[in-house]
Amino acid sequence: MTEIKQMATAPREERETIISYECLTGTWHIYTDEPKHARKYEKYVAHPQRKGYNSAGQLIMLEGDIDNGVVSIRKNISEQQRKKLSEFQKERHHNVNKPPIFPSRASQDLTEITQPS
């Protein structure tokens, strides 16, 4: 059952959106009093627990379980940003998979430690 109430829009500095995951049931739950997010996620919550509307009848608050339990958050990036990120990841992958470089003295010390006397 959906609780519907008329309410005032929360002040901008107090608005929040909380999306949480319940591992045992495999469900995502959303609570938001940010009008933009309430409108965006309304189509994903088939049976909301609560909805709040302002005096003009606009949705400003939403709470309920997200249907089909899939949540993804993506940020749109430009082609230039994507290429820069790709190069960074390739370099990082290359550096992680390199064998460690020891200075000659450290290498000798390591050899002495690892070989039996």
Q: Would you kindly provide a written description of the structure presented here, covering whatever features stand out?
A:
The protein is of the alpha+beta class. Helices cover 31% and strands 24% of the residues. The protein has 3 helices and 5 strands, in the order βββαββαα. It has helices spanning 35-41, 79-96, 104-114; strands at residues 3-6, 17-22, 27-32, 50-53, 59-66. It has a 5-stranded mixed β-sheet. A hairpin with a 5-residue loop joins strand 4 (50-53) and strand 5 (59-66). The mean pLDDT is 82.
Number of helices, where a helix is a run of at least 4 consecutive DSSP H or I residues: 3
Which H/E pattern describes the elements?
EEEHEEHH
Shape: elongated
Tell me what portion of residues adopts beta-strand conformation: 15-25%
Mean pLDDT: 82
Distance between the termini: 78 Å
Features:
single chain; 117 residues; alpha+beta; 5-stranded mixed sheet; 5 strands; 24% strand
Describe the structure concisely for a colleague.
It contains three helices and five strands; from the N terminus they run βββαββαα. It is α+β, with helices and mostly antiparallel strands and 117 residues long.
